[in-house]
Design a protein that fits this description.
The protein is 35% helix and 25% strand. By secondary structure, the protein is α/β, with parallel strands linked by helices. Helix 1 crosses helix 9 (308-329), helix 3 (105-119) packs across helix 9 and helix 4 runs parallel beside helix 6 (207-220). Bound molecules: NADP nicotinamide-adenine-dinucleotide phosphate (NAP). The active site is at 127 (acyl-thioester intermediate), 239 (proton acceptor).
Length: 330
């Protein structure tokens, strides 16, 4: 049994980690829920106490999940390292650090295992980079790829609970008035799409787009040319990615390659169906829809719960692999 701490337990990712740990029956001895302020969290008909992070002693934990942003983890990382606990970081603070493995449990845990066990720090990728890396790694086992073109349609919960609240507030107000001020994003998002996530770089790409490209290539250890556009859409939970990959893999072989990944659900021609962003909310799998190979380009529409399958589950699966190694060495 293991002592688990969740930093940011009251947020969207933190709550989802709590729920996934519970569902997957993670062997927990003591659970420490931490946030900025003391509060109660209701989950599964139970009420959990969430304590203040700044009063916590990390020596009590074996594994720490960070579900807050980079500034928080940078402040506490020294204490966590000193305590000897494993850190699984969901923020973008450490993802591109050359000494920290950026891990998708199904793709590259094993090749990073020694480093993870030695340094006890793992970064978990961005919620678009993660599913894209899983799909590309499955295809790369079967074919050569040099270029990828993708557009990510990201729900408002991608920025946390305040994005969700902002969309709900704007949507209600916009039904009553034509004059609306943005509630959270830089422009009104209710009934609209914002084709910019992060800041705009000098080449007019965005920081989010650059982040996704760098993270994918780090995970799959490749140098793919990636053309990425990110847009924020008025969906509460669930991201979608429209992916186009020039390659000579047939549709049938692509389907087989994708089906070989446990976390992927292929909505194949036989079901003649697709899963929307909204429908993906609460589900564990990454849905790959409308796979087609036309004029030398493999195309697909990917939908998934950004909080759960794009975030929390990967963290918990990494923790499961860590405890397997701990059990085998003890
Ligand atoms: N949302 C996604 O789709 C997604 C996916 C993958 C990764 N991520 C990453 O996961 C992290 C969490 O995202 P989220 O969406 O869960 O955000 P969120 O809903 O806004 O939750 C933020 C959490 O951080 C806590 N927090 C903020 N400042 C703190 C401080 N100074 N000390 C202690 N706790 C503090 C908050 O506690 P209080 O309640 O006390 O304020 C809350 O529990 C971010 O780094 C994000 O980039 C998000």
């Amino acid at each position: 049994m293991f002592n688990i701490a969740i930093i940011g337990a009251s947020g969207l990712i933190g709550r989802s980690i709590l729920s996934v740990l519970h569902e997957r029956k993670f062997p927990i001895k003591n659970l420490y829920l931490l946030a900025r302020k003391e509060q109660e969290i209701s989950f599964d008909d139970k009420v959990f106490k969430c304590n203040r992070l700044d009063e916590f002693d990390f020596k009590s934990a074996d594994i720490v999940f960070n579900a807050t942003d980079r500034s928080v983890i940078m402040k506490y990382m020294g204490d966590i390292v000193e305590s000897g606990a494993f850190l699984i970081d969901k923020s973008d603070a450490l993802r591109m650090d050359k000494d920290v493995p950026l891990v998708v449990s199904e793709v590259n845990y094993e090749i990073n295992k020694d480093k993870i066990e030695a340094n006890k720090i793992v970064a978990s990728p961005n919620c678009v980079a993660m599913p894209a890396a899983i799909i590309l790694s499955a295809l790369l086992r079967k074919t050569k790829i040099s270029h990828v073109f993708m557009t990510a349609l990201q729900s408002v919960s991608g920025v946390g609970g305040s994005g969700t609240k902002g969309l709900l507030e704007e949507t209600k107000k916009s039904l009553m008035s034509s004059h609306l001020n943005p509630a959270y994003f830089e422009k009104v998002i209710a009934f609209d799409i914002l084709p910019k996530i992060g800041e705009i770089n000098s080449d007019l790409s965005s920081t989010e787009e650059l982040k996704i490209k760098k993270e994918i290539n780090k995970i799959i250890k490749n140098k793919l040319y990636m053309h990425v556009t990110c847009a924020r859409v008025p969906v509460l939970t669930g991201h979608a990615i429209d992916m186009h990959i020039p390659c000579d893999l047939s549709r049938e072989d692509a389907v087989k390659a994708l089906k070989s990944m446990e976390c992927i659900h292929v909505c194949d021609r036989e079901d003649n169906t697709y899963v929307t962003q909204r429908e993906s909310a609460g589900e564990d799998e990454i849905f790959v829809n409308r796979i087609r190979h036309i004029d030398g380009v493999l195309s697909m529409w990917v939908s998934y719960d950004n909080i759960r399958s794009g975030g929390a589950i990967n963290g918990v699966k990494i923790a499961e692999k860590i405890i397997q190694s701990l059990k085998s060495t003890n």
